[in-house]
Design goal:
heterodimer, A: 526 residues, two-stranded antiparallel ribbon, 4 strands, globular, B: 516 residues, Rab-GAP_TBC_sf (chain A), TBC1 domain family member 19 (chain A), TBC1D19 (chain A), Rab-GAP-TBC_dom (chain A)
């Protein structure tokens, strides 16, 4: 009991500390000062009156939302005496693996730099700056020669690293038993089984109304939908992040989604946000980074070739180039055990005082990175807003899909969850695929690593991401991946090679996400 | 140079055939271009006085030059269950026809029951062809009343006037869905007057009888148009065209194996329309687009029209700005022009299916605004068909699948750009192939050579009956007198055609069994 209380006060202290430096804090302070002029604020009951004033004027809601937003990325509870790196990632072997993976990426980036003799960064000449500014809205029309550039890594390479993860303290020499994990991921982490998932995703149950289940019928919108839209409008009117998050678990109506997501992510589009975006843009115009070429290449290889997202090519460049310059992204390394790559000013290699993070946001783009942004283009049309939403989505969720950690939403846990769901609930299928050399994870990994972006139809993808936001968890990705295998199980039982299995699952763009999830979670015999 | 009367099967050279297959289907391959010369034109215009004359001409089998179709000797006819089809188009259409159970292909001079012809064949042969009752052909005799840009505008203007007389101004205002348009050279003076009234706006000049963006240019100064006039008089029209588009005419104008040199000689004077250019198009991702929607007309008197659920938005590859008025690629969304664009990349899609477009709009503007936009589009289809209802020679042998090109502006108002009688049936991607084969299959279901339908269907596959001598209600039974009328249109909605067809044909079979 005492322990819990002190935990709580610790969390409060940390959040207060964090918010003190924020813009919101300054605004609240200003509002409080200004309120002193008002007749209803009395000196004798100053504290209570100001509280009341905040409540009436909606500032309390804003504070609540900010606290809620902080909590969503707050590290899992741990011993107060644990050193900071333990808070990010308790397992040493994970930290070690991550370290050597980061070294590999850096090496690859450096060697590309040397091979092509292109500097990591350079200031653009004025003429070039002007040119870039002129075509800011049509960067996609540029066709630079990128044949020499290659993505630093692709999800496939990352999967190999995860497969080789081992816990040195864990001896898996036991003879085969029903407990033996037959999948590719061989680290002992606790993942949920179906009864636990049922409890966790209780709002997805068969008896709860869901958007994304019946809305493709021709009948006029059902009672549930009308009611759901009405409640959604109410939630938006209240401007309450927590309510919005609960609400969205049943899916978001198309017309309200953009606002609901912004509310959940606590993004309000203040004038200073526009200013901040403009600063990033100026930075892009002034400096040319090597990673820009990687971003370019990635967009060309992925989003521009996508039937859904090709239209948004220009937005993607704008967002991703600004993202790479955004040092506020570094903040997420407070709870991400990855460490941002460093580079040194020429001739000062190894001298910490000359070290800078490279790229400035600390994130090296990889093959498929732009697909995290692409679906958001469907919802947000002003670049600065699109940018903010993406950044928040990244620092809350997407970073977990390409860093090694034991977090339940981390990619390692997702892989393990996927494999254990298949092995436990579809043992025949799992065994069959394993025997023919088509380990299911080899097929599903790319889906999960991209949060299914580019694999599902956009409307279905947005319904899926509704649930990611609603549950503040990426575990739904692993459940869906398993559900897809379950859905195509009959065909998969007939294949005899990895290529054939891949062919069966090559196109999942026709699948309906919510029925699949429901059937897998709530109609599977456990 | 002239093709055989029966519309030869096309180039024998396999390379050429390939080229044709890979290029887009042309709207009117050189057909109406020849209308420039007076005699042809008179002959053609002669056919539009009234339906009776046209029918008489067609049903006169005495003349030996007349070739009969669908005729076969009594006994043979009884036995033959198969449907003989003919087409000159080598694309998705051929795939669909060949895969249709019970249908057999007829080549060259063979007799046919179903002919998906191109419009040039129609022009040369229709009046000399006798057709049996069951025979069906894929165009109306004078479809150009709707599909030639200048006639369409003329008909719409007339229809608008008529509505204003009969039903008042508000009703007439419902026809204001086409930009201000003048026919050149004959309305040149009216145009100049209008031009001077609105200085600074942009105009677009389009040849009336060509499709796929050929010969189009934009202008803002009257001087440009002066040059253009001189150009036409001096037969130097070609030099005014933008070169990239020019070079593709050859490739794109499908059926006829000729080269552009010969083509040029055949254009003495070309009619153009000058149209007010819509300067505030709706943009997605900074790009301009237009919508392609398919409407199937089975009869004009009474008007029976079906609307297909699927369609697509075609995106311009470059970004929209009015500053680069010379850059043709920005403004035209025709796929044929797109393909000549320097940064065209065949791997990149340029299309969104209508469902996706509808969803995008709904997430941005809410479902009500989208409903309104699509209702406005329904209005365009109906009014435009009504405007030519009395002019088009109604003939029970004919049906026609139109491709409507619609532009949306920033106020979410739809504008009718043009109507194509031969919408491209060549697929540009897998998704596109699926759309077009389904579209054609459903067209054949509605045409119903097999005689399976009762004629009371309101939906067949992806087609919804939109107009049946009056608006069609979505609900069963007579329309609610209170005015809760919901039209039977589902453009851009889910197209669960397979399930619908299965159910439809199943219930038709049950009905047949119980009645027989």
């Amino acid at each position: 009991m005492l322990q819990e209380e002190s935990d709580l006060s610790l969390i409060i202290a940390q959040i207060v500390q964090k918010l003190k430096g924020s813009n919101l804090y300054a605004q609240l302070e200003r509002q409080a000062w200004a309120s002193l002029q008002r007749p209803e604020i009395k000196l004798e009951s100053l504290k209570e009156d100001i509280k009341e004033f905040f409540k009436i004027t909606g500032w309390e809601k804003k504070l609540q939302n900010a606290v809620y937003s902080e909590l969503s990325v707050f590290p899992l509870p741990s011993h107060p005496a644990a050193p900071p790196e333990h808070l990010k990632e308790p397992f040493l072997y994970m930290r070690k693996a991550l370290g050597s993976w980061e070294k590999r990426i850096l090496k690859s980036l450096n060697s590309m730099c040397t091979e092509l003799s292109i500097p990591l960064a350079r200031k653009r000449p004025v003429a070039e700056q002007k040119e870039l500014l002129n075509k800011w809205n049509e960067m996609g029309t540029d066709e630079p020669d990128l044949s020499l550039f290659r993505p630093v890594y692709a999800p496939k390479d990352f999967l190999e690293v995860l497969i080789n993860l081992r816990n040195p303290n864990y001896e898996n020499g036991d003879p085969l038993s029903f407990r033996t994990h037959l999948g590719l991921i061989q680290v002992p982490l606790k993942v949920k089984d179906i009864p636990e998932l049922k409890e966790y995703f209780v709002e997805l149950g068969l008896n709860t109304g869901q958007l994304g289940i019946d809305d493709s019928t021709q009948v006029p919108p059902e009672l549930f939908e009308n009611e759901h839209v009405r409640i959604g409008q109410k939630v938006l009117a209240e401007q309450d992040s927590a309510a919005a998050q609960q609400y969205i678990r049943q899916g978001s109506p198309t017309a309200l989604r953009a606002e609901l997501w912004a509310l959940i992510l606590n993004i309000s589009g203040q004038p200073e946000d526009i200013l901040y975006y403009e600063q990033l843009k100026t930075n892009v115009i002034q400096y040319d980074l090597l990673v820009d070429r990687l971003t370019y290449k990635d967009v060309k290889l992925t989003a521009s070739n996508d039937d859904y997202y090709f239209v948004f090519e220009d937005y993607l460049y704008q967002v991703l180039l600004c993202f790479s310059r955004d040092t506020s992204v570094l903040g997420h390394f407070a709870y991400n055990c990855a460490s941002p790559p460093k580079s040194y000013i020429r001739g000062k290699i190894g001298l910490e005082e000359y070290a800078v993070f490279y790229p400035p946001n600390g994130v090296i783009p990889f093959h498929g990175f732009s697909m995290y942004v692409a679906p958001l283009c469907f919802l947000y049309h002003e670049p600065y807003k699109l940018y903010q939403i993406f950044r928040e989505m990244y620092v809350r969720f997407f970073f977990r899909l390409h860093s090694i950690s034991s977090h339940p939403s981390g990619i390692v846990s997702l892989c393990l969850l996927f494999e254990s769901l298949l092995q436990t609930y579809l043992p025949q299928l799992f065994y069959h695929l394993r025997e023919i050399g088509a380990q299911p994870l080899r097929i599903s990994f790319k889906w999960m690593a991209r949060a299914f972006s580019g694999y599902l139809a956009t409307d279905q993808l947005l319904l899926l991401w509704d649930r990611i936001l609603g549950y503040n968890s990426l575990e739904i990705l692993a459940v869906l991946a398993a559900a897809v295998f379950a859905f195509r199980a009959v065909n998969l039982m007939e294949v005899t090679s990895l290529a054939a299995a891949e062919a069966v699952l090559a196109d999942i763009s026709t699948l309906k996400v919510m029925p699949l999830l429901q059937i897998f979670l709530f109609a599977t015999v456990t | 140079m002239r093709r055989s009367l029966q519309g030869g099967p096309g180039p024998a050279d396999p390379a050429e055939r390939r080229a044709r297959r890979s290029s887009n289907q042309s709207g009117e391959p050189g057909a109406l271009r020849r209308l420039g010369d007076g005699t042809h034109r008179l002959a053609l215009r002669g056919g539009r006085w009234d339906g009776a004359v046209g029918n008489q001409v067609m049903l006169r089998p005495k003349n030996q030059n007349f070739k009969g179709h669908g005729v076969s000797k009594g006994k043979e006819r009884e036995q033959r269950a198969s449907i003989r089809f003919k087409t000159t188009l080598m694309n998705t259409l051929m795939d669909v026809l060949r895969h249709r159970p019970g249908w057999v292909e007829v080549k060259d001079e063979g007799e046919w029951d179903f002919y998906w012809c191109d419009v040039s064949w129609l022009r040369e042969n229709f009046d000399h062809t006798y057709m049996d009752e069951r025979v069906r052909i894929s165009h109306f005799r004078n479809h150009y009343e709707l599909t030639r840009k200048n006639y369409m505008v003329k008909n719409l203007k007339r229809f608008r006037k008529q509505l204003e007389r009969e039903a008042g101004k508000p009703e007439a205002a419902k026809c204001d869905f086409f930009p201000k348009t003048f026919e050149l050279p004959c309305e040149y003076h009216l145009f100049v007057e209008e031009f001077r009234k609105n200085p600074g706006i942009t105009w677009i000049m389009k040849p009336v009888a060509r499709s796929q963006g050929k010969g189009i240019f934009l202008f803002r100064r009257l001087k440009d148009i002066m040059d253009w006039r001189k150009g036409t008089v001096g037969k130097k029209l070609a030099s005014l065209e933008l070169q990239p588009a020019r070079s593709t005419i050859n490739l794109c104008s499908s059926h006829e194996p000729r080269n552009s040199e010969e083509q040029k000689d055949e254009i003495p004077v070309e009619n153009y329309v000058a149209q007010r250019y819509i300067e505030n198009p709706y943009l997605i991702g900074g790009r301009k687009f237009d919508l392609r929607v398919y409407v199937l007309v089975m009869s004009y008197i009474p008007l029976r029209a079906w609307l297909y659920r699927d369609g697509f938005a075609r995106f311009s590859n470059t970004r929209f700005t009015l500053n680069s008025i010379d850059d043709q690629y920005v403004h035209l969304t025709n796929v044929a022009v797109q393909k000549t664009s320097p940064d065209y990349h065949p791997k990149k899609g340029c299309k969104w299916m209508l469902q996706r477009f509808r969803q995008y709009l709904a997430s941005k503007h809410g479902p009500e605004a989208v409903e309104e936009l699509f209702a406005d589009m329904d209005n365009i289809f109906i009014r435009s068909l009504q405007s030519v209802q009395k002019v088009i020679i109604s003939d029970k042998h004919c049906f026609e699948l139109y491709g409507y090109d619609i532009l949306i502006d920033q106020d979410l108002k739809p504008w009718l750009l043009e109507v194509n009688a031969s919408p491209s049936l060549t697929a540009s991607s897998q998704e596109d192939y699926a759309l077009k084969t389904c579209l054609l299959e459903d067209t054949l279901h509605v045409v119903d050579m097999e005689g399976r339908l009762t004629g009371r269907e309101k939906r067949v596959g992806g087609f919804d009956l939109m107009w049946n001598d009056g608006p069609v209600s979505r609900e069963e039974g007579a329309p609610d007198p209170v005015g809760n009328f919901v039209t039977n249109t589902h453009l851009g909605c889910v197209n669960d055609r397979e399930a619908q067809l299965r159910q439809l044909f199943h219930s038709l079979q049950v009905q047949k069994k119980s009645s027989g």
